Structure formats: C-alpha cells, structure tokens
Amino acid sequence: MKFLLFLFLAFFISCEKYNNIEKVDLSEKEVKVTFFHTTDIHSKILPFQYIPNMWDERLGMTPQDPQAHCDCAEGFIPEGLNCVVNSTPCGESNSCAQYTAQGKTICDTEYDACRQCLKDEDCGSVGGKKCINYQCTAQQSGVACTTSNTCSGKGECYNDNGSQYYGGIARLAFVLELERSKVQRSVYIDTGDMYQGAPIFNFFQGEPELRAMSYLNVDAQALGNHEFDEGVPNWIKQASNWVNYPLIAANYLFDDPYDYSNYQTPVLVMPYTIVSKDGLDIALIGIANTSSMVSISDAGNSLGITPEDVQGITQYFVNILKNQVDLVVIVSHGGLDVDQVLCRELTDVDIIFGGHHHVFTYPAQVIKNIEGDDCIVLHSGVDLRFLGILDVVAKDIDKDKPGMEIIAHTTRAIPFDNKIDELIKTTETIIGWGPEGFNGRVATIGEKKAMDQYSLVKDMLNDYEFEMKKLLNVDEVIGVSRDDLLRREISGASSPLGNLVSDAMMEREFIDVDFAITNTLGIRADLPKGDIKVQKIYEIFPFNNSVTTMSLSGVEVQELLDYVAHHSAERGCATQVQVSGISFTMNCRKGVAEDIIIGGQPLNDFGVYSIATNDYMADGGSGFTMLARVPSKTNTGIEIRNLVMDYIRKKKEIKLSDFEDITRIVPSR
User: Fold this and answer.
1) Which residues of the chain have pLDDT under 70?
2) Looking at residue 427, which CATH number applies to its domain?
3) Distances (CA, A) of 63 to 68, 81, 209, 393, 416
4) pLDDT tens across 105-140, in order?
5) Tally of CB atoms within 10 A around 409
6) How far apart are CA 563 and CA 330, in angstroms?
7) Comparing C-alpha atoms, which of 427, 370, 368, 416 is closest to residue 389?
8) What gap in Å lies between CA 442 and CA 431, rounded to an integer?
9) Which residues, 6 or more positions from 42, have their beta carbon under 8 angstroms from its beta carbon?
10) Is 53 a domain residue?
11) Residue 488: CA atoms inside 13 Å, Cβ hemisphere, count?
C-alpha cells in the first residue's frame, strides 16, 4: 500500500508538470541535446590541491608542473603529455625538453621571450644543466608565461609554490552557464555523494554544498550513500532548507514518505522526474546506492528505507514512462558495475549517468542491451575535477518503437583547474569594458550570465570559508613533504601514504599494540609534495574515525587477513588495508593470507596479539565482521586525523624514502 501511494504521488506530480508544458512537434527532425554531468563531489566545493594522474592529464587537466614530467635524466615521457626529449642529452647547450602548449612548441630559442615572466628566478642554467622552466601560451601579443618554477640541481624543474588548484563549485557555476549559452537544449544531472571529503562538511554538515547546488538549475540528482553520513535527520534538515530540484531514487521504498516528525526521509525524494527541453521530453529515473550502506538491507533499519531490486524496479518505471517521453535516462549512484548490468539487461534505456566508483568513462561506454539496442554509460570522475559532457543527436526513426533513438553522440570533459580562473578573469575584463568591448570583443549574454552565477556562488561560499577559518586554521602549515605520497601503490601493494598512516597509529603515545591496520578507502586523497596544511589532512581524512584497540588470537588474525586477501582479490588484488608492525602475502588466487610475520616472528595460531584499527572497521564496516565479534575493545577517542597531524608535526619533514616499503603487503596473483 505504501508503495502504491508513493508511486501515485510521483506519477501525479510529474504528469502535472509535464502536461503544463507546451508541446513542440519534433517528428522527422534530428534533435540535439547536451547533458552536463557531475558526480561524487564530496564537498570539494572550494578549490583544492591535488596530484593529477596520467588519465587526468589525458583529459586536459593541467599538471602541477608540466616540466616535472619531462625529466631527460630518466628519459621518462608519459603518454598523456606532449613532452618531447631532444636528441641532445641533458647538460649540453640545448634544452633537454620541449613542451607543446595550445599548439605552440616552446623550446630554448624562445627562452628570452618568456624570461621576463620568471620574476627573480633564473633557472635557465643551474649547475651547468639547461632546463626549460616555463609554460608559454600563444596570445595576440606574442608569447606570455603562465607559470614560474624553481629549479633543483638535477637538471629538472618543479613547482614549489603549489599554485595549481583543482575543483570548486563556483568554477562549475561559471562553466555550466557559459556552456548552456552555446546550445539550444541542455540537461544538468548530478549522480550523488555531495557530502564528505573536505573540512567545510565537517563544520557545516552539508549546508553550503546543497545551498551552492540550489543556484545551478539542477534537473535531477540521485541519492548517494554519503548523503546520510551525518544521519538522516541532518540530511532531511539540509535538503528541506536548500534543495530546489528533484531528488530521485526509484529503488528506495520509504517507511512513511509523508512523516516529517519521526526523521524518516520525506517526500523530498521521488522515483523519477520528467523534463522537457524545447519539445524534447526526457524521463530521468533515479537509482540510489545500496552496496556501501551496510545495514540498509536489515529490516527496520534506522534510515527507514527498504531497498527494492534495482533491475526489476528500474524496468518497471521504464515501462511506465517510455511511451510518454522521447528519451529514457537513468540517474544512478549504483556504481559502474551495476550500471553496466542495467544497460545489458534492461530494455528501452538510452543513457545511464552514474557515480560511486570515482571513474571517468571517457569516451562514454556503449553497451548492447538484450534486444541489441545501444545503451550509453557515462561516469564523470570525482571531486569536481571535471564536468562531463555528453552531446547527443536523437531522431524518431522507428515508428513502431517508443520515443527517439540516439543516432550520434560525443563525449567531452572540461577540467576544473587554474585555466578556468584565467577564463573568468578574461571574461570579467571584457564585461568591464561595456559596449565598447575589449580589443574589439564585446561580452555575450552567456558570458554575463556565467559571470553573475560565478559571483553569486563565490560570494555565498566566502561567508562559509570565513566562518570555517575562525573555527580552524585550515591554512596552518604542520610540516613539509619532500615528495608526493600516494594512497595507492600501482602494484596493489601497501602504499607510501598508507604506511605513514599505520606507522602514526603504531607510534602514538598510549597506543601500545603489536600491529596496526586501517582500511585503504578511509584514506581519501594523496599527499602532494610541498607544505602540508591542515586543509589537506582533512581532505585525506574526512571521516571522524578514531583509533580502537583490541586483542585477537592467532586464529582470528588469520581470519582477518584471509578476508583482506579475499576482499582485495575482488578488486584486482589491490590491498584494501594498510598496515604497520606486520607483513604478509595476499594470495588472491586462493583468497588467503600467507607468510604472516608479526614483530619479526611468524604468526602463532595460539598466540594473542594486540591491534589498533579504526572504529569503522572495529564495528564491522566494509565486511570486517570478525572484528565486530570481538567482545572486548577500547575506543581511545583519538581521531586518526589528529593523530596523523601530530605525527607530521613531530617529524616536521616527510620523505618518500621513509615510507616506500611496499613489502608489508605483497599481492600474489
């Protein structure tokens, strides 16, 4: 009965909105529509420092230091960069590398043209090593430098000022409005996980995230698992106050969607919505996450949600809507694997926009469904590093089939890096010159709207940023890192940043244990070289996890590590934990841990071992039920975030060489 009431209400609201829209005849026409997509923003609404990887750079993101990758001493040239090593070796008169930027090749013949941009630094010759240390762009007035670097004594350049920042929802507001002005029809979709990943969430519990989204004219947003990190009452409060767009989740059945008083999720969430874009009618059906919400399948869970079978309920709504609309789109936070299955197994689904797994499917995947029709899948990364764009052309080809067919599509990605700030400054200058224009260039209506949106969101966020800095000095420098420390090791073994975290747990005063173990996914960002600020530590450890200690028998330790091997085997044999004081081999073929050494001695089944872990794992999170069964455990109340900051303050300087032991956990495939 509850489900029928829920369905009727959703259908009634959608139909009322849909029927009030004037119909446009698009028969026989090729209709273009542009979809804008973001996902897994994770509170990265303010620009942040980040270490771009090869895939980011292939999608056009500016690396922290382009020249750092052109190291002729090593002869390493990643595929994603236009770095070319000359035939002349490093140390001779010619430059060791050249960098192609915006179609213009920069080499030492143009060094003088850019030299004035290097301020007081002259890296042209360091210890007899010649090195290109600038990035140039072609402009009307000739060649202009956009970055300045300092040099090491190794004939390579690196950027030590951390000037490149990524993400930021004010940048998104600007780009969205600018791109909208270029197309006739557009749809903006977000696929959930707005929360958790930056200190602004820790202080304001999601208010600025949802408030910022309310300015962006969102057409629909799926529910992510992190929306409930501060509890259902907090989510209801924030969504009720700020959300002015459809929140959709067809696979959630709420205990009482009308009851606001008992903190059950109210009728803020509907299974679907229908949007009309200049005559093109599009059904947007929501899929919320279930895989990461451990207790959601329990009867009477605290969320007040009963999860429905994803495939069955989605096809149910597709069948209801397909004859009313031109395109059927799924807005999913189920994860890439779920989305791929839905594409294959469902009928009459045109596109799935997804999230949860933090990947960018570039170009968008095209999967054949059970009837041989194409289904497009697009995931657009994480942390607002990119805006994913899908340009679609649709046409009503087969009169016997409902809706239109997509006859062409292209995928684009716009990276949110400092280039966006340069574009904003240029736009602001053009607008400032008014109708006379700047160098013959007059601002368009779209540019003016984009600038208005940017200013609106930026001004709103400034208030939160100011309040946050009164509560916590996020710019406090607690140490320096001489190298990048990554949270994942490419071979799947223990990682440098994971080693640092687990070492910090082991060495903490009053935590006297045999070994430490923490989950890899609890470490949410890499540590870039340079000054280490409190802001970055909050990004690495957004969760308020604390250290819990307990004792395990040797048999229980074996069970724990066997689970790690089995769990990691499902993820390409990449370790799902980080450790200190213990080493072992993950036999991913058998799903067991082998060669376990604790404190320099082989594991003794009859021994007793004290361990330190985080409270999330201690309570059985991520499937660690063997830890939840331990009857006696102590939550120390020491937050891992604070523990790591104290550790860095004590060491003052972090070096990769201190934490690059990847033999603590050795994957065996």
Assistant:
1) 1-23, 64-163, 255-267, 292-304
2) 3.60.21.10
3) 9, 10, 26, 33, 12
4) 333 333 333 333 332 233 333 333 233 333 333 333
5) 19
6) 34
7) 416
8) 7
9) 193, 194, 195, 196, 197, 198, 226, 382, 383, 524, 542
10) no
11) 17
Domain range for residue 527? 477-668
Cα separations (Å) of 81 from 39, 57, 107, 501, 631? 26, 7, 16, 32, 54
Dihedral sign for Cα atoms in the order 78, 79, 82, 84 = positive
Given the structure tokens 């050494």, which residue do they identify?
Answer: 597
Residues 6+ apart with CB under 8 A from 662: 489, 491, 493, 494, 495, 496
Please state, as a whole number, how many other Cβ atoms lie within 10 Å of the Cβ of residue 34.
20
Domains in the chain, number: 3
Look at residue 15 and give its three-state secondary structure: helix
Which residue is it, tokens 């849909």?
Answer: 18
Interatomic CA distance for residues 38 and 21, integer angstroms: 27
Q: State the chain's maximal CA–CA distance in angstroms.
A: 85
Please give the backbone phi and psi of residue 385, each rounded to the nearest 5 degrees, phi first: -75, -30
On whether the CB atoms of residues 305 and 256 are closer than 8 A, the answer is: no
Cβ-contact 534, 646 below 8 angstroms: no
Which region holds residue 510: left if phi is over 0, alpha if psi is between -120 and 50, else beta? left
The DSSP bridge pattern shows strands 186-190 and 97-101 to be: unpaired
Closest CA to 296 of 228, 222, 358: 228
Give the strands of the sheet with 31-38, arranged side by side.
Answer: 269-270, 247-248, 220-222, 186-190, 31-38, 386-395, 405-415
Shared domain check, 422 and 300:
yes
C-alpha to C-alpha distance for 169 and 45, rounded to whole angstroms: 5
pTM of the model: 0.77
**Is the domain of 208 the same as that of 330?**
yes
Rounded Cα gap, residues 660 and 648, in angstroms:
16
Among the candidates 433, 465, 497, a domain finishes at 465
Interval 433-487: pLDDT, tens? 888 777 778 899 999 999 999 999 999 999 999 999 999 999 999 999 999 999 9
Q: What is the DSSP letter of 615?
A: H
